[in-house]
Amino acid sequence: MSYKQIDERFWKDKKVKTLSKDGYLFFLYLLTSPHTHYTGLFEMDLDYVNIDTPLDVKESKSAFKELMSVGIIQYDAENNLLWIVNMHKYQVRSDRQIKGAENHIKTLPKSNLCKVLSDTLSIPYLYPLHTHAIQAKAKAKAKAKAKAKAEVKEDIKVNEKKTYSDGFEEFWKIYPKKTDKKKGAAKYEKVIADNEVDHITLIKAVKEYAKCKKVIEGYIKGIEVWFNGANWEDEYETVKPDPNKKIYIEHYGWMTQAEIEKEEALQEEIEQKLIEKGELDTNGNAINSEW
Question: N or C: which end of the chain has fewer CB within 10 A?
């Protein structure tokens, strides 16, 4: 692990104070990134910014242009070389560091940025041509690795979003007790897979359960207990609701009982038509969906 110093004057710098929030984050990332060399000149694939920070592609591109426009960084796109223009002033202070800078520059692709930094540090700029093929190979390998890492990161995001089946999510929205979702999902998938009951029957049963007398009085079974007891087969004692009393329904807002029943009937009618058309199976899941 290498360490870089950030002078407290950073926060009062005129150029820095003009930066947007994304510009601040991008610049701080460059100063402290594990890919950054203490001379301020290093090979940098900009994909790393999107992997290591919260910035998305659009935000990082905008921040990059911002830093370029105020002269904080320079970039050699052909060789993927990035130079933090004044970083050497704060990091390169000893003869040993100057020697390290000289050795580092020799490993970089031939670039005008290398020459400018070499002249600034008063060190000779000699470029070993025989290293070009090795550097090109290393650069391609690093880029492929960054791309693979980004793809894995995206796959993880997709999988996190799609933890439960559509059928169970519909059931869960109705079930009146919001605990033990994972266990409930396992029970739901098992009774469906074992053909003990179909999705439509479960939805109808849970709707009746959600408005039965015991639930309204506060006696609500855990979802796992409900499945273990095959309670979709039960008949429930219902309480006649006040037709004018409004209840808050997720995604719909405040509704009277009459409005709720009308919406439920409409949804059942739509679902039945989609099943008849072959767009949904009997569990309420889409068939041949492109999503």
Answer: N
* Residue ranges covered by each domain of the chain: 8-161, 166-277
The stretch 119-144 carries a mean pLDDT of 66
Each residue's pLDDT tens digit, 148-161: 777 766 665 555 45
Task: Please tell me the distance from the alpha carbon of residue 275 to that of residue 282, in angstroms, as a whole number.
Answer: 7
pLDDT digits (tens, 9 = 90+) for 115-130: 999 988 888 876 544 4
Q: How far is CA 166 from CA 145, 162, 189, 200, 267, in A?
A: 34, 9, 11, 13, 15
Q: Give Cα separations from 265 to 47, 175, 259, 262, 280 (angstroms).
A: 50, 18, 10, 5, 17
Q: Which amino acid is at 255?
A: M
